[in-house]
Amino acid sequence: MAGEKIFAGSRIRDLRNRNGQSQQGLATALGLSASYLNQIENDQRPLTPGILLKLCTMFGVEPTWFSDSGDVQRMQVLREILGDPLFSTMPYPRQLQEAVRGAPWLCDQFVTLYRAFRALREERGPGGAATPAPQPGTGSYDSVGDWVQAERNYFDEIDRAAEGLYETARLDEGGPAEMLGRYLRDRHDIRIVTDAGLDREGVMWRFDRRARRLSLTGGAPPESSAFWLAQVIGRLDYGQVLARPVRRSGLGSADARALATVGMSNYFAGALLLPYERFRRAARQTRHDLDLLQRQFGVSFEQVCHRLSTMQRPGAEGIPFYFIKTDIAGNVLKSYSATRFSRARFGGLCAQWNVFECFSAPGKLHVQMSRTTDEAVYISVARTVGHSPVSYFDRPRLVAIVLGCAVSHAPELVYSAGLDLTDDRMVIPIGPGCRACIRTDCRHRAIPATGFGIDAGSEERGVVPYHMVAP
């Protein structure tokens, strides 16, 4: 973080409130005036190295807790939006930076407005024929994702509740599905049955409260069954705990709050199967070997990867990972990042990303070092997940998972074995999608970037039939 200007007002305020400290009390502890700290908390002044060190010592967090990754991600989203042909020019990076730091709320509202505009444009179709207004589902889905991202994909109260249940119920004494099934039978007198018909309906589990019967779809692997049982336990025993973050979220629509509640149920299930401190220690001991962690905890590849992206407990942070789940068409199904990394939010993903290699070799793990357009270098692993077809007429869903982090953490990953981290030829340049990507020398470009001129040339012809000219 050396050399960066760090504006971290909201993070400081969050830590102060968690510890029940007043602004005056924290200012006194830091040796500052209350007005100076107030300016820092309102992002009118950056953190100095001395104050950053004091905050890290006082609250027991790493310096990366205060990084301005949110600003970097906002800037990329704005660049993508302004890459739409609707806009004729692209602002300079400094102008975007000033907008993000000076008016983050206004930038967020602009993103929301553009999202609604795209939804309406897509519903009207190429001809522009009038149709009913777009339904709120997509916007709600995106707003929940933005909220989870703003919380760094970590929910402390839920995480600690799940961890406490794991220890008190001694869930480590047998297989996860077996132990969770026994817990539901002993505590709630719930009978667990298998119903092969659920799969034809596209349903994984169904709970009949009156009959005290939980039906699970047939043929599911044990790790999936364990996750579903953990979801039900969260809803039955920790409903209020799951509801509190949603109430504080500020999500405006009922759809968004309902989706957020489902998300908190999923978060609880992952935290119960992979209790924070046990999992953090195991991850460090195995150098984050995903296959070893799968076997040790009896969970799936996706569950391990997703859990690693949530390890942001203050004072006990894991490696800040980003996690992305995508289908073969490039649709992003889930995306969380504890780093500066930000994937394309509008339009297609970069063709050079290792996620697309996965679908040509299902089940194989792909390791890649990549450099984004802000010159940050990452190491990532990607692999497809999905079940084998049960019949000729079955069409199983095949998706890919990507887990990555800054290359500075590569020595802590088993996947850096054999890689020459100093060889720049090993680093693949990737971007946020062609319209927003500023690279002028990419052989994989599909369309020109907005804001650049085009030189079609007359005496030569390259792989891409034009040169992009910087404004």
UniProtKB/TrEMBL annotation:
Which InterPro entries would you find in this protein's record? Cro/C1-type_HTH (IPR001387), HTH_RamB (IPR026281), IrrE_HExxH (IPR010359), Lambda_DNA-bd_dom_sf (IPR010982), ScfR_C (IPR018653), TransReg_Diox_bact_type (IPR050807)
Q: Which UniProt keywords apply?
A: DNA-binding, Transcription, Transcription regulation
Q: Which CDD domains does this one have? A: HTH_XRE (cd00093)
Tell me which domain of life the UniProt entry assigns to the organism this sequence originates from. Answer: Bacteria
Kindly indicate whether the keyword Protein biosynthesis belongs to this entry. no
Pfam entry (one): Peptidase_M78
UniProt keyword ATP-binding present? no
> What cellular component terms from Gene Ontology apply here?
cytosol
Report domain HTH cro/C1-type positions: 12-66
Q: Which SUPFAM superfamilies has this protein been placed in?
A: lambda repressor-like DNA-binding domains
A Gene Ontology MF term for this entry?
DNA-binding transcription factor activity
Homology family:
Belongs to the short-chain fatty acyl-CoA assimilation regulator (ScfR) family.
The protein, known as: DUF2083 domain-containing protein
In its UniProt entry, the species of origin is given as: Gluconacetobacter dulcium
Lineage per the UniProt record: Bacteria, Pseudomonadati, Pseudomonadota, Alphaproteobacteria, Acetobacterales
